[in-house]
Specification:
alpha+beta; 2 domains; elongated
Length: about 400
C-alpha cells in the first residue's frame, strides 16, 4: 500500500502544478543551496583536521620518545622494550633537533635541523608523498651531506635542487658555558618538501643523523626516537601505555599532543558550524511547507477523488509526507553535486589565490575531506526537517471533506 501511495505522491509532485509551478522551484533552490553549504563547510572543517593529522604523522611520526637527560642507552634495546609493551609498533628511528641559522647569498634565516637515521626513517616517516621537487630517496653519503628543505624556506632563500648552502650552529664553549662557538656546516639540497604545516615549510631542514651530529659537535647523542604504529589512531593509547612502562626518565607524546589546542578547537567548532549552516536548510524547509500548502489548495479536486475511491485521511497525509521526503531527497542529491563543485572551486582558489593565511591557521592549504559521518548527518537532518515541515500541509489535506473538494470545482 505504501508503495502505491509513494507512486501517487511522486506523480503529483512531478506535475507542473507542484514542482515546476509557483514558488516550488525557488523552494528547491533554497534547499539545494542549504545542503551544498553544509557539504562545503563540513568538508573544510574535516579537511583541516585530516590535513593537520597527516602532516603530524608524516613528519614527526605517530609518537615521540624523548629522554629528559642525555641518551646513554642503546636505542635498539629501547626499541625492543617499546615493542614488548606495544606489539603494534612498526619501526622506530633516532632523531635529533638542532637550532641553527641558514646563510645563502647574503640572506639568513633561523632554521630547525632534524637529523634522522636514514636506514629506518622510510619505515617511520612519509616524505615521498610530500616531494615538490628533487627526491626523497637517500643516496650513499658523499663529500657534502644531502638535505631536504621545506618549500617556504627554499623559496625564501632562493635555493634549488643541487645548490649548496651553509648553516651556522652555536655550540656552547667547553671552558665558559656562557660563551658560544660557531660551527659551520655545508649541505647540498636534494629535495624540496611540502611538509603540511606553515612553520615547518618556513624553517625545516631534514638531513642524515650523523651529518647533524657532526655539525652540532654532539658525538653520537640524539634527542629520542620517532615511532610508527600500525594504526595512527592508536598512537594516543600507545603513548599513554609507554609513559607508564618506560617510567619518568622518558617523555612520550603522540602526534596530537603538540597541536592539542587546534584539534580541540576543530572538534568544538564543527557541530557549531553544522547547526549554524543548517539554518539555511531550515529556512528552505519552511518554503517547502508553504509550497505544499499551496499544492493542497490546488489539489482539492484530486484529493476529493482519492478520498472518494477509498483512501483514508491517514493515506492522504502519507501522500503529502512522501512529497516532502521526495523534495528533500532531490535537494540532497543536487545539493551534494553543487557542494562537490564548491569544494573543487575552493581547492582551485586556494592553490591560485592563497585563501588560507598559513601564519594564522598553521596550514597554507587544506585537502578537503567529505566524511561519511558528515554526509549521513546532512542527509538525516535534511530529510527530518523536510518531513516535519510537510506535516502541517499534509494534515490540512487529510482533513479535507471530499464533498467540499468536488463542490469547489
Amino acid at each position: 500500500m505504501n508503495k502505491s501511495l509513494a507512486w501517487i505522491s511522486w506523480r503529483l509532485l512531478m506535475s507542473r502544478k507542484t514542482l515546476f509551478g509557483g514558488s516550488a522551484p525557488l523552494s528547491m533552490l533554497g534547499l539545494i543551496l542549504g545542503v551544498a553549504a553544509l557539504v562545503a563547510s563540513m568538508a573544510v572543517m574535516s579537511g583541516f583536521e585530516s590535513t593537520l593529522k597527516n602532516a603530524m604523522a608524516d613528519v614527526s611520526g605517530h609518537a615521540q620518545v624523548v629522554k629528559r637527560s642525555r641518551f646513554p642507552d642503546d636505542w635498539q634495546e629501547l626499541t625492543e622494550r617499546i615493542r614488548k609493551a606495544e606489539p603494534t609498533l612498526v619501526d622506530s628511528t633516532r632523531f635529533v633537533f638542532i637550532e641553527a641559522v641558514l646563510a645563502h647569498q647574503g640572506k639568513i634565516s633561523g632554521v630547525l635541523i632534524q637529523g634522522v637515521d636514514t636506514e629506518h626513517v622510510g619505515n617511520v616517516l612519509n616524505f615521498k608523498n610530500r616531494v615538490v621537487s628533487g627526491s626523497a630517496e637517500w643516496g650513499p653519503p658523499g663529500e657534502v651531506p644531502l638535505a631536504m628543505l621545506g618549500k617556504g624556506l627554499a623559496t625564501k632563500m632562493n635555493l634549488k635542487v643541487g645548490d649548496r648552502f651553509r648553516v651556522v650552529v652555536p655550540v656552547a664553549d667547553t671552558v665558559d658555558p656562557s660563551k658560544f662557538q660557531r660551527r659551520v656546516g655545508e649541505f647540498q639540497l636534494q629535495g624540496v618538501l611540502d611538509l603540511g604545516k606553515y612553520e615547518w615549510n618556513e624553517r625545516f631542514i631534514l638531513t642524515d643523523l650523523m651529518a647533524a651530529q657532526k655539525v652540532a659537535d654532539i658525538g653520537d647523542r640524539y634527542s629520542g626516537l620517532l615511532l610508527r604504529f600500525q594504526d595512527v589512531d592508536h598512537a594516543r593509547d600507545a603513548a599513554f601505555n609507554l609513559s607508564g612502562v618506560l617510567g619518568s626518565p622518558y617523555w612520550v607524546r603522540d602526534w596530537r599532543e603538540s597541536n592539542e589546542n587546534l584539534f580541540e578547537a576543530v572538534s568544538v567548532e564543527r557541530p557549531g558550524i553544522f547547526f549554524v549552516v543548517l539554518i539555511i536548510t531550515l529556512v528552505a524547509a519552511f518554503n517547502v511547507s508553504s509550497t505544499l500548502f499551496v499544492n493542497v489548495v490546488r489539489r482539492y479536486k484530486d484529493i476529493a477523488i482519492l478520498k472518494t475511491v477509498g483512501l483514508s485521511q491517514k493515506d492522504i497525509i502519507k501522500i503529502f509526507a512522501f512529497q516532502g521526503l521526495f523534495m528533500g531527497g532531490i535537494g540532497i542529491f543536487f545539493g551534494f553535486i553543487l557542494g562537490a563543485i564548491l569544494c573543487g572551486l575552493f581547492a582551485f582558489a586556494q592553490s591560485r589565490l592563497g585563501l588560507i593565511a598559513g601564519e594564522v591557521y598553521r596550514l597554507d592549504s587544506i585537502e578537503l575531506n567529505i566524511r561519511l559521518i558528515d554526509s549521513v548527518a546532512i542527509c538525516v537532518a535534511t530529510l527530518l526537517i523536510c518531513f516535519i515541515a510537510t506535516l502541517a500541509p499534509a494534515r490540512r489535506g487529510g482533513r479535507l471533506n471530499p464533498v467540499e473538494g468536488l463542490r469547489n470545482e
